[in-house]
User: Fold these one by one.
Assistant:
Number 1:
Amino acid sequence: MNSSDLIEIKDNRPAASISNGKSVKTVVVVGGKKYFKKQLTERCKDNLCHRMAMYKEFDVGRQISCPYIVKYIGINEDEHGMYVLQEHINGKSVAEKIETEPSYFCNHRNTTRMLKQLLEALKVLHNANIAYLDLKPENIMLQQINNNVKLTDLGGCFADSNNYTAEYTRRYAAPELIEKRLDDVDARTDIYGVGKLLEYIEKKTGKKLPKHLERIMRRCLQEDKTLRYGTVNEVIKALEMGGVILRTSIFCMAMLCALIFGWKQFEGSENHKRLMTYLRTDATVDGIHYMVTSEDSATCMVIGAQMIQDANWGYINLYIRDEIEIGGKAYRITEIEDSAFKSSKIASVSFPNSLTRIGNEAFMDCPLLGTISLPASLKSTEHACFKRTGVRNILFPEGIKTIGHASFAESRDLTSVVIPEGVETLELDAFACCDNLVKVEMPSTLKTICRGVFWECRKLKEICIPAGVTGIGEYAFFHCDSLTDVYNYSPEPQALAAIFNRRNINVHVPEASAEKYRNAHHWGDMNIIGDL
């Protein structure tokens, strides 16, 4: 392939230009099809070792045929130096995925699926007598559409024909690599990397791995490689056995319940929910179920309560302690699990001072919950955590930064909200459809009002937008039928899509900025008054 056939393009994805200091990866088009072009940087293009590593990467890559390993198309050189052409991958690395979508790996089925595909990729390499070595989250891509694995960057692998350009990243490397004992490198070196990957996922998500994955991780991470799994096939077998044991246990218990109650009546019932919670419970204190999340940091998570199942209670006042004791050891309560108290009779909650996370939909559909006082340790609210509650009063902590997606949406009894100083972002639909909301006070620290934050707040009459707000998402004030006056203190009109669905709204702006607003898209459709 001639280098003149390449057309460099710009892409709005960050991966359109990625540099590791030795090479840079850009997106190019050949014959209307996208590829990744990996090219040595200016300072490395004449370095023999780096050139040999690139030759090796292409040579190894073209021998390998696996759906979970990136395909190598060609190797060439242009005026900027040597480059390799690879298939174009739409997606994110495991490192990017866990930063932008941490909930993805909180679902351990996704972790297991990713691990199986990665092990298949390693098996293909090992069968070709190649050790990958540099197994790290940045080198494992998950494709955009199906989240399938694509293992990238074969430049540092250990191959018979070229092992002197082998590379690794120290924090993920096996002891034999760190000690430069290349004669000890084999399949078990990559198996250690699999353990480091599981350790990384557990630490970044803050979620304890299921016991079968934890056992696999511990064995992979043995310092003495003779104590690790001998082959990738052994790891795959352990992974499958763990799933079989777990599924068999759950199936047997479910079948027992099915025999007693009938499956259709049991599935989705309160007894089913109680059983599932009980299976994961490490301790029950004052009727509240807890599960340990980290032995090292001595933390645990609230996952439910016995009293939620008791139909004799008209309402429930929930008190969660700062600390509990399990097996003679003290554990701090730092989380409330997703959906832990969803659709329950809770009327009030006393949160622990150690709490850092209230999970998605944790108190959703709790119509008796009228007052919410959030602890100072909380920095954000999660998706729909208090959606459709009976909340009338919200006391936010001073340190909170973000009001999350639909956190208080459809709370019909909410009439006023004071958002404290320190909050920077109101996320998508945060207070949408609070149709009795009359008054909102926003802080000077606010920077972003996302899409639909006050959508269908039909009784909201006026709103003050602080001077520091630089972004307002579309539909932010759609169907606010009573809205007559907006006080926007920003000296520069924010770039907008449509945020109002009516034109008869008075927008009060700084006097010196009035003309700018009149000439700005969408703002100019309103009645601009320069009186601030």
Number 2:
Amino acid sequence: MTVKILKKSIREYRKETIITPLLMVGEVAMEVLIPMLMALVIDNGVSKGDIAYTLKMSLLLILAAGLSLTFGLAGAKTAAKASAGFAKNLRHDLYYKIQDFSFSNIDKFSVSSLITRCTTDIQNVQMAFQMIIRMFVRSPIMFIFAILMVFKNGPGVVGIYAFAIPILAICISFMMFRAHPYFEKAFKSYDGLNNVVQENLNGIRTVKAYVREEQQEEVFDKAAKKIYKNFVKAQKIMSFVQPMMMSLMFGCTIAVSFIGAKLINVGEMTTGQLLSVYTYNSMILSSLIIIGMFIVMVTIARASAERISEVLTTVPDMDINESGRKEVLNGDVRFENVNFAYKEGVNVLENINLDIKAGQMIGILGPTGSGKSTLVSLIARLYDATEGTVEVGNLNVKDYNLKSLRDNVAVVLQKNQLFSGTVSENLRWGNKDASLDEIKKACHIANADSFIESMKDGYESHVEQGGTNFSGGQRQRLCIARALLKNPKVLIMDDSTSAVDTQTDKSIRNALRDGVKGLTKIIISQRISSVEDADQIIMMNNGRIEDIGTHDELLKRNSNYQGLYYTQTKGSDEEKDYE
């Protein structure tokens, strides 16, 4: 099943994949021919003093060697092209598959695991693929041809291999069976190591601020040792392959010498034939060694192939609905009896009923873990509701074409992600065809135009990876501008003004209210000042809507809102009066 899935990635490199084994057959044929020609030179030329025959056969030897070299070089080239192309396509297929994943699919695998599968695992499969189309074809064919030539030149010694080969097959099969589970564990351990590295690099400023380098080194060493231990266990088992192969090779050589000498004494074999049998014996045993090495590689690659196949066969749990409606009429948002669970049986949201009219500004407040971000993620179908329906523009979100829905529901997430490039390139993620005037208008609403225009290169200023050359507040404002360039019907701001001062926050809200008519604004915040002028404020607690009302209404009747308000405006003493 795994092979069937992965072979789809060969595609345009099918020709090289087919030609390589054929070239290997040609190379092996010439290599097998050379010992036979040498035997003829010794027995019919050198032994009889026939110079003309010796020269003629020597020319044939040179020709056979030249052809063998030509076939070998051509096969190496086509094998490299086929394996590199296969790996390229596999990376393409894997990456594009991941793009179709929903958030829940990505949560299932984890980011670090997906990175390992796109890098280390594909490299292992690429090496195995190259060995399959080259060495795995070459070695068995050489083995078969060499056995046939031994049978022709010295049938009395063929029985040696009838004893040696089954022993080899049984031992290698046993080692594969024992080693495979350790290789599986090792590659899963790579996920943990990548996670440590990724987490450390993303949070390197925090690590250095808290002087936790030594602690992070210990975490890294622990993950690295886990990989080391699994590989050592696997390699200890596989390390017996080489000594076993060499013992078998020397044993067969001794047996061939002993039996061959007897056959020469009784006249059933010539000296040239014995010399050719020695060469064929080396070919047979070297083929077995290469097959053994190939089996080790395949054992390693098998675990990687299964991990890659697991991603490629995963069905995205969110239907993008290609034929769905592409037009969103307005910014009305409605939740009806909505429940949601990340894990089955553990609801994060319960019995959510909500009706938001187009053009309204809605604030959402609540303690950490109350379900605020989860609630808004259902509107843009970052996740799908477990039960109930979510509507935008009076239509179930699942009935829209997913791209069209997300083009009309812009989300500014908690983590403000910018990409390496220029400011304008980052902003055009919202609209790739946006003019400079449109960019400037969006930046003015987001209160980002002043700091952009103060920079030397303005909108063409360079953005470092992750936007690290901008402050947190600047990144937030750029992300708001980027979302506005989508010209959405609904704008969701998930705590996306937390890093700006209250005056700038107020300026952004006023600009959104006055400058973008008909846009539904949903603002999640920890600050009441960010939502107090909203048309409705939703108070959430433990995955439920606790209360809905205006600032004045909630201040009169909701104790949690009162406590939060007085804590933020008058200090902790007032908070105690409302506890």
